[in-house]
Known about the structure:
The first copy, chain A, has helices at residues 61-72, 92-108, 129-138, 146-152, 205-218, 255-275, 294-306, 308-315, 322-330, 360-367, 394-400; strands at residues 6-7, 19-24, 38-43, 48-53, 77-84, 115-122, 161-169, 172-181, 194-199, 234-239, 283-291, 341-344, 347-351, 354-355, 371-377, 383-390. By secondary structure, the first copy, chain A, is α+β, with helices and mostly antiparallel strands. In chain A, the strands form 3 sheets. A 6-stranded mixed beta sheet of chain A has the order 1-7-8-9-10-4, with helices on both faces.
Amino acid sequence: xxxxxxxxxxxxxxxxxxxxxxxxxxxxxxxxxxxxxxxxxxxxxxxxxxxxxxxxxxxxxxxxxxxxxxxxxxxxxxxxxxxxxxxxxxxxxxxxxxxxxxxxxxxxxxxxxxxxxxxxxxxxxxxxxxxxxxxxxxxxxxxxxxxxxxxxxxxxxxxxxxxxxxxxxxxxxxxxxxxxxxxxxxxxxxxxxxxxxxxxxxxxxxxxxxxxxxxxxxxxxxxxxxxxxxxxxxxxxxxxxxxxxxxxxxxxxxxxxxxxxxxxxxxxxxxxxxxxxxxxxxxxxxxxxxxxxxxxxxxxxxxxxxxxxxxxxxxxxxxxxxxxxxxxxxxxxxxxxxxxxxxxxxxxxxxxxxxxxxxxxxxxxxxxxxxxxxxxxxxxxxxxxxxxxxxxxxxxxxxxxxxxx
Amino acid sequence: xxxxxxxxxxxxxxxxxxxxxxxxxxxxxxxxxxxxxxxxxxxxxxxxxxxxxxxxxxxxxxxxxxxxxxxxxxxxxxxxxxxxxxxxxxxxxxxxxxxxxxxxxxxxxxxxxxxxxxxxxxxxxxxxxxxxxxxxxxxxxxxxxxxxxxxxxxxxxxxxxxxxxxxxxxxxxxxxxxxxxxxxxxxxxxxxxxxxxxxxxxxxxxxxxxxxxxxxxxxxxxxxxxxxxxxxxxxxxxxxxxxxxxxxxxxxxxxxxxxxxxxxxxxxxxxxxxxxxxxxxxxxxxxxxxxxxxxxxxxxxxxxxxxxxxxxxxxxxxxxxxxxxxxxxxxxxxxxxxxxxxxxxxxxxxxxxxxxxxxxxxxxxxxxxxxxxxxxxxxxxxxxxxxxxxxxxxxxxxxxxxxxx
Lengths: 405, 405
């Protein structure tokens, strides 16, 4: 029994003990109405930290500097800017990322090496460091600043995305908060995904690292097709131990509840990103059951959820299930047509590879709701996976055909 | 020297000697204005034939039957229908595909095994065989019927796509014609791609097979990302030998000119498909130079050409070249940012990984034309590749959000 993970009303990254945050408008963002574009999170106590980063061969130096600092083991603060990605600007990008951590460190009274840095926005433009310098000075850090931080990270996001949960470790109440930004179209390549998680649980660094990777594979990475990552994608977790539990490691009795809390927070944020996808009107959930193995289940779920044709059909509330079969077929997952069952929002559309007569109007009506779920049972093995996405709309094209100009 | 390959004005699949074609409206297509939906191509003489097929694990039985017949070695005719894909309908689909070849064979006075069958359209609906039976009877075959055949294959295509070339083999004039259909969005998964090529050159079957695969990899497969294929994709070539040249094999002096003719026809048709992509207003060409090897060059070119963000930016004539770098980075091709040069329609935008100041208005104006070309020089090796795509428009979403309903 992993115990219980409970949602905290109005929770955010400053919900766990000892975390403060704040944000300001430095002048980097011109295209958003929500005028905050530079933020800070800091823990009053040292932290265990772990990160998962973009796999792209073209990578923002902000990611490189963060990787170095997290590896160094002292990270307890994050500085984040929106509007400019600090990518493809030559060596200057690395110097600017370093300076951002130094400036934030000065303000917070910690080493530059204790600060992670994340950037999101337009590629190929240098960071205006003078604006960032002035901006950082203005930021006011408070225990209620998580929400402003969430707003400051947004680019084409229509709303801030944050959550917190509480759970019990070693008889003590611990909390975990999370914040994310991302236009949330299925592929995180559509726009940078930045996610920060905070917790007051004490967690062994190695266990934190391993668990973060495992959880990311079932949450954030289920909004992506293989290898689709932006130049700046970053997921960080900071654990400051102020709950005063014995540090959790792989063998702790509290390991399962901690992993469950991490999973709940990450799945919540991943779904929020999909739901807030650029131009999106609906959340798409693809559940794959009984695939040969988990790898195949993930391939199939992600391929269906990321198919432009499936996404367009969902936008039109069109039960064009042949496109789901097409996407399954090309996913690379083992599938035998004669064994496949397909359900749309619970209605069986196909059984053992043959169409089942269904009441079209009823399914169209179901698909007009805010969530459309495709469930595929491959009847081959015990691999299961769920992927999340959103519909493809005219609005997506409009947003993305005039972003820099 | 491979000699010269010349375009034939108004050429089509019936341009080579001894090929006839025809089409009719059988009643399978309801969504197209161009009311032809069932067609036939036949050669008066036996042919060498070769094919390339969908790699999907969910495959139309029309493809299965065609594969069996082409393997059998006697194929000299093709029957094709548009409107219904004959896919995901259980075993009945296989019986119907077989019956289509038998009915066409009866009409043409050849064995069923001499007929290939191709279907395109909606998945999950059975073929109305009585309509096909009546339709086949009505088709009139003529030496000028190639154009009607091209129209009968169309689904969401806005125009028929066909071409013919002439070339000299062993002192004799030979000809090759080609026809294709496909909504032509970058991924052939967007809609079935069917392409038929005819030639009166005499060609050894093994050589025809090998050469078709090689040429497909540089033409049709450069409109796709890896593994993205529909349930019905089929590319066939029929060579009836009426030019009376000695059959061309890998060691023939005429092998290079034949391969060149095949390449010219396939590249022409692939570009036409991209240009006629659903909702498309522009052709996108992505040239990758000096990649580590051809595999990497192809990966990079296809990933850039198929990125929704790149395609949206092209639609808005927005020189948002950071998205090209993002797509290069996630393509899986080796790339070192500090070595990359990027050109948009010939204008240098980035040199050795750093942005070059460019006249934005001039580049925007260039991007308003009917073709946008991105050239990436990776300065790593000698791998080269070109991929073709089209822009992503609101119209694409409109077309695909109401297809079956």
